[in-house]
Amino acid sequence: MAANIAPTARTRGKPSGDEEATANLKLGEFQNVPTLTLSEARLLINAVMDHRKTLRTVDETETLIKTQDYLDVFARFKQKENIEAVERYLATKTELELFERSQLGSLCCESAEEAKTLVPSLTNKINDQDLQELLDEITKLRNPVY
Hints:
The protein is an all-alpha fold. Helix content is about 50%, strand content about 5%. The relative contact order is 0.14.
């Protein structure tokens, strides 16, 4: 009787298993793919939702609402100008992978040691002093002095 029921979700391809974000960053098919910080994702989703509201085509699913709530809590930068400034600054760090830059922009670590613990692939790419300077610049953008 229930044998002809259509699947409720798309079938997912089997993961290749070669992705890992450890000391040796292996992102497989996602290597060199542009990534977003949590703040950028929040900005993008909010802009799309605002646009859809003007068109009156808003379909706020439970997943979307939960994602927005998550990003509201964990996005470190709330102002568009600060988000863009962080992106511009991180883009100058071409020795880092796109994934690593996004992680640094999302995590906002206080110390080089913390950053290298949370993003182990940084260990052999950037020395502690340079990484600390990078983190200090991100912190300045997070807490601008007016």
